[in-house]
Amino acid sequence: MLAAREEATAFFSRELAPGCEGEVLDQATRLWEHLDQIKHHMATALARIEANGQLLGEGGQRDLATWMRHSFAISATQANEMATVGRTAMRGTFPDTTRALEEGELSFGEAAAVVAGVERAVEKRNSTDNPDPVLFAAKMEHGLLAFKQERPNTSVAGLGRAAHQMGARLDPNRVERDHEAAHAQRGATLSRTFGGSFLFQAWGSAADALRLEAVLESYANPHDTDDGLSRAQRDYDGFMNAVGRAQTHQECEKPSSPAALINILIPATTLAGCEGQDPATTQDGRVVPTSAVRELLGESVVRHLMVEHRTGAVLDVGHEYRIATPQIKVAAFVGHTTCAWQHGCDVPLKWTQADHIVEWWQGGRTSVENIQPLCSTHNRLKHRWGLRRDKRMWAGRQRGRSPSPAGPIPAPRPPRE
Ligand SMILES: [Zn+2]
């Protein structure tokens, strides 16, 4: 081991000759791969010591991550990563990941991301829909390794996001369940202090966080690196700008154009409620519940993309159009004074959103007769109920096919406006 270290030290201590930078970078990459292999075998051996109960007696710590944190003086994240990969290899629970790591197809960090992503998804899965944790883990592992093989340049962070998306695909109800639970727990408090200041706190679902982020971002003052403002101050200013706009434009007859943009990519089949398809994601890969996308759609601009299924490459981009134009909204809302929820609702018109009576993705047209005003509560409720009904419909349709043909289910065709 010492000889290997001396050789490496000698190589990197050499005077760097002009034109040799490429070679140094190559060697550094190679060395890093060797270090990954060493770390892998070392972590496996250490996991064995932990498993046979000798870690406390010999090393003075109960678990491996704690022992590594203190003995190697590394961060908790690094220690957990190493302990996870070591235990996995020792137990043989992720055979394909361990093999890929041994063969250099995965780096140590990537292997750790795969294992952590799968374990998180297994823990959060719905055990009624997916009763067998081993089978669920195997499906996830297989899918993630295939994803990495198809897109070798995916970063470790990208792999973590892919794990989240894959979990959502294998367990589509989870995202809706989390969304519903977080929304049910929502709240905000505004408390004044004696010193003349206040504290505002709000909590809710991740889908609402997306909207809030977009608003804070778009209402923030133009970024000026010299202004010396902290991120928190910028967010505060953005928030107060949005508040100011809400106050002054409340009675506006003319609906304003959307100032805060969120880009969401959703397969047409997912939007229609078909399970087992890719989930809706933001540009940075965060999963958005289908019901939340449906809810936002009435106020959205839509663009059809044709995407190559395996690689995600965009083959064709359609033109962009607003689901409900301000003109249609004004005309459709005539005759209403409140939210048009069928069971009655007193929320005034100015706080409602445009909603398609027959859903747009089910062929409903964006015409005056097919648009109604709904308050945010009832818009949310309508889409929550509607999504459940559509999922049952798709499930019934898929069961009705015999024998089940391979290949994707044809996407529903929304009308071109
Ligand atoms: Zn309502």
How is this structure best described in words?
The protein has a domain at about 265-400. It is about 55% helix and about 10% strand. A hairpin with a 6-residue loop joins β6 and β7 (about 315-320). The protein is mainly alpha-helical. The protein has 16 helices and 9 strands. The longest helix has about 30 residues, at about 20-50. The structure holds zinc ion.
Question: Which tags fit this structure?
Answer:
two-stranded antiparallel sheet, binds zinc ion, nucleic acid binding, endonuclease activity, 16 helices, DUF222, three-stranded antiparallel β-sheet, about 10% strand, mainly alpha, single chain, about 425 residues, HNH_nuc, zinc ion binding
Strand segment tally: 9
Spatial shape = globular
Spatial gap, N to C terminus: 70 Å
Share of helical residues: 40-55%
What spatial order of strands do you see in the largest sheet? 3-4-5
Low-pLDDT residue spans: 402-412
Write the SSE topology.
Blueprint: H1 2-13, H2 21-51, H3 54-59, H4 64-71, H5 76-91, H6 95-102, H7 108-124, H8 133-150, H9 156-170, H10 172-184, E1 187-192, E2 198-203, H11 206-219, H12 231-248, E3 264-265, H13 268-271, E4 280-282, E5 287-288, H14 290-297, E6 301-307, E7 314-322, H15 326-333, E8 352-356, E9 371-375, H16 376-400
Antiparallel strand pairs: 1-2, 3-4, 4-5, 6-7, 8-9
Helix pairs in contact: 2-5, 4-5, 5-7, 6-7, 7-8, 7-9, 8-9, 9-10, 11-12, 14-16
The protein binds zinc ion.
Zinc ion is lined by residues 339, 341, 345, 347, 374-375, 377-378.
